Structures are given as C-alpha cells and as structure tokens.
Amino acid sequence: MPILHLAEHLSRAERIQFGSYYTPKELVNKVYEFIKPYTDNRKKNVMIFDSAGGCGAFLENVGMNDYRIADCNLKACEFLMQCFDKKKVFHTNSLISVNNGEKNATFAEIKK
C-alpha cells in the first residue's frame, strides 16, 4: 500500500486550489486509538466510512474491517481506486444532502 498521507495524487498547486487538507498520520493514529474497542470487537460487523477520503489516510489501518470511502474530487477517487477496492470508492459529495435544521447552501449557490 502506498504512503497515504502525502496526497501524491495532487500537485501542491492543486492542493492549494482545491483547499484540500490531508490528515496527519499522528491524528489518524489517535482516532484509531479511540475506535479500537469497536474495530477489535469480532462479535460485531464494523464498517469504517471516510466521507472525505482524499488520499485514504483514515483507511490505512482498516485491517479486516469493512469500509467505504468517498470524495468529491475525481482525481482523489482515481487515486483511491488504485489503493482500495474499486467497488468501495465513491465519487460523490457526502455532505450535499446533509440537513442540520438550517438551510444548507448548494455548491452552485456557494460558487456565486
């Protein structure tokens, strides 16, 4: 598996242009410390979902657990499909239909 914390699928200029943020390995490891009781529990089926997959850093430690990964950037998804099961990578904006009780702006509205 490639080193997933370097966002090698994007140039530095593209990372700046897209406002991409890639999670440092230390933070990923800390998250896995918190979810370890769940991921290690073989009595339950655990699925890990990364809704902003980027370069897949959060799935580097997925182990035997099931997973899904999504990203709204096509280049990120193409990169992820080289590293993970293509059937589990989705090119979508995971937040597009989120409803937190307030009117959420659509991408088209934000671009204006």
Overview of this protein structure:
The model is unreliable at 104-112 (pLDDT under 50). Helix 3 (74-83) links the parallel strand 2 and strand 3 (89-91). The N and C termini lie far apart (40 Å). The protein has 4 helices and 3 strands; from the N terminus they run H-H-E-E-H-E-H. By secondary structure, it is of the alpha/beta class. The protein has a 3-stranded parallel beta sheet with strand order 1-2-3, covered by helices on one side.
Give short descriptive properties of this protein.
33% helix; globular; 4 helices; disordered C terminus; 112 residues; 3 strands; alpha/beta; 3-stranded parallel β-sheet
Shape: globular
Give helix and strand order, one letter per element, not per position.
HHEEHEH
Determine the fraction of residues in helical runs and give it as a percent range: 25-40%
Q: Which structural class do you get from the secondary structure elements?
A: alpha/beta
Mean pLDDT, as a whole number? 76
In spatial order, strands of the major sheet run 1-2-3
Q: Sheet bearing the most strands, described?
A: 3 strands, parallel
Query: How far apart are the termini?
Result: 40 Å
Give the topology.
Elements: H1 12-18, H2 25-39, E1 47-50, E2 66-71, H3 74-83, E3 89-91, H4 107-111
Parallel strand pairs: 1-2, 2-3
Please outline what is shown here.
By secondary structure, the chain is α/β, with parallel strands linked by helices. Helix content is 33%, strand content 12%.
